Amino acid sequence: MDYCFGVDIGGTSIKMGLFSRSDGLLKNWEVPTRKGSEPTLLLRDISEAIELCLKENGIRKEEIAGVGLTAPGPVSEDGLLRGTVNIGWGDVYLGKEAEVIFGIAPVFVGNDARVAAFGEFTFGAGKEVNSLLMFTLGTGVGGGVILNGQILAGKTGTAGEIGHMTINPFETISCNCGKKGCLEQYASATGMVRIAERFLEETDKASSLRKLEKVTAKDLWDEAKKGDELALEITEYVSRLLGMAIANACYIVDPEMIVIGGGVSQAGQFLLDMIQRKYAENVFPHCRDKKFALAKLRNDAGIYGAAAMVFEK
Ligand SMILES: [Zn+2]
């Protein structure tokens, strides 16, 4: 059983990867995600894509060690995927349904951010370490905890939901999750834009950001790198909250490495250094020298992590 599939289910497309135990990723492609339908139909689409790939590559089903699936919602340690708003599903044991529809077992399922962290752990930035904590700074803030070589899912699938750690109990605006003051409201791409707009409104300080019609997270970091004072103030502010959240998380799991991924992480070493500095200000001295790294696998972290769930178990 030398092959497996790593499948990353997203809101608009499903990323598929065929992996071999010896050679890693052999082929990757995408199929569109069906929306608002039962998971059964989506699993059938994946099943069709798998069958076609097997046929095209002359691989028999008996040679498949298993399938790894990501899902855009919390997955508990016993495999229950909780209602996923993005795709419009209720609670479902996705892996069990998938095994029947694919005619392949086992099928492992994990939350997308957790599985991406596992991808970085196995094939990317965390290849050399035994534990890591990953923060994905995108539209939201995703998180994943890898401990003792495994994804920490938790009893209800909530372990790793670092983006919804309360970082400001006095926030008056609601997060997407319904709470107020979540890290995601500050440190996601959308959160950074929100904070930038607030800073721009509250001061008269000159800034190159004022020349832009609409500020994006990328603009913010670009201008900070160029030395724009207000942009620097804003990036320091959001990095401070992020650094505090990372420090808080380290008081619980103390991993070997922190990985920062997601679209915002394309701001690169400048962003990584700033977050690391803010982290160090908020943690015990002996814990300050933790390794910080940028994610390496970008959009493929999900399929790599999904494949790793099969080959590593
Ligand atoms: Zn939240």
Explained architecture:
The structure is a single chain. By secondary structure, the chain is α/β, with parallel strands linked by helices. It has 2 domains: 3-121 and 300-312, 2-Layer Sandwich (Nucleotidyltransferase, domain 5); 129-295, ATPase, nucleotide binding domain (Nucleotidyltransferase, domain 5), CATH 3.30.420.40. The protein is 37% helix and 19% strand. The chain is built from 9 helices and 10 strands. The protein has helices at residues 39-57, 94-102, 112-123, 184-187, 189-202, 217-225, 229-253, 269-280, 301-312, and strands at residues 3-9, 13-20, 24-32, 64-71, 107-111, 132-137, 141-147, 150-151, 257-261, 291-294. A 5-stranded mixed sheet has the order 3-2-1-4-5. A hairpin with a 3-residue loop joins strand 2 (13-20) and strand 3 (24-32). Helix 1 (39-57) crosses helix 2 (94-102), helix 3 packs across helix 9 and helix 5 crosses helix 7. The longest helix is centred in the C-terminal third of the chain and has 25 residues, at 229-253. The two termini are 13 Å apart. The mean pLDDT is 94. The structure holds zinc ion. Zinc ion binds at residues 164, 175, 177, 179, 182, 184.
